Amino acid sequence: MVTDKKGNDKSSGVQVITRAANILNILGAESDGLSLGKIATAANLPRSTVQRLVGALESVDLLQNGEAGLTLGPAFLRLVSSVHTDVVTAMRPGLEALAELTGETVALTRPSGKNLTVLHCAVAAGELQVTPRLGFARPLYSTSAGRALLALQSDEEVRRLFSDEFRPPHDFSIQTISGLIEVLNTIRQDGISYDHGEMIEGVKTMAIGMNTRIGHLSVSMLLPFGRFEKKHEFCRESLNEFRKKITREIGVW
Fold first, then answer.
1. Taking a C-beta distance cutoff of 8 angstroms, is the pair 229, 206 a contact?
2. Distances 46 to 34, 35, 36, 158, 244 between C-alpha atoms, Å
3. Helix axes 47-59 and 10-28, enclosed angle (nearest 10)
């Protein structure tokens, strides 16, 4: 047993922090809220243990209890907002330079549980630009940016993430977890993720994933069908160079 100078068991403190972090992660993936019982099941902990941890987290506003159940609290959301701002601040100059270089809109995204969230868009000056909504949330498996992010994880992590919810539209090209894993393996080998008009009709996208010191991030480029073939190679090379530059400046986790 490892103890501090006062003879307290240090391992028990680490365990409490680990369990609390796990509860926060569980609720982060369930924006609608969860009951104590469902949290206990997901965390594989006794309900009494979860109740004590939830009480402590509520007391400092990291969790809040509403009509739909427990959700992340205002203190946690303030922390997320602060990190979001720092990420955008760090990435904005490079994104704007990439948009100017290629003449195409560039979007910065990150995972939020099972979904993709758009943090920032750099819109190029050329005609016919496609701009996703900030905060736009779609399942990670349904977009090129989301699949680029999933490709940073192991197959086991991906299967676990969607073990209880994988419902693509009936006409979507990926219908099974196994089919998704095949696509992710291709992305890992190729380094680039593509969407050929499934998410936005008439628009093709390409995306890269980056495991940086400020988290898993994806940068995607949105091109109308008419410009894709002509600019594909140049935009692909530009995205790859951008990834090298950012990982060199920010660092890889």
1. no
2. 15, 13, 10, 26, 46
3. 80
| Phi, psi angle pair for 251, to nearest 5° | 100, 155
Instruction: Count the neighbouring beta carbons within 10 Å of the beta carbon of residue 170.
Output: 6
Backbone angles phi, psi at 116, to 5 degrees: -105, 135
- Residue 221, strand partner residues: 106, 206
Instruction: Indicate whether 1 pLDDT > 50.
Output: no
Question: Per DSSP, what are the bridge partners of residue 118?
Answer: 109
DSSP one-letter string for 99-115: HHHHTSEEEEEEEETTE
Residue from 84, 156, 147 nearest 114 by CA: 147
Stretch 169-174: mean pLDDT, rounded? 80
- Global pTM value: 0.65
- Segment 109-133 mean pLDDT: 80
146, 218 contact by CB (below 8 A): yes
Say whether pLDDT at 54 is over 80. Answer: yes
- Per DSSP, the residues of 40-105 read HHHHT--HHHHHHHHHHHHHTTSEEEETTEEEE-HHHHHHHHHHHHHHHHHHHHHHHHHHHHHTSE
CB 146 within 8 A of CB 137: no
Of 116, 126, 122, 119, the residue nearest 94 (C-alpha): 122
Spacing of C-alpha 230 from chain mean position: 30
pLDDT per residue over 173-216, tens digit each?
Answer: 788 899 999 999 999 999 999 988 777 777 889 999 998 877 88
For 57, left (φ over 0), alpha (ψ -120 to 50), or beta?
alpha
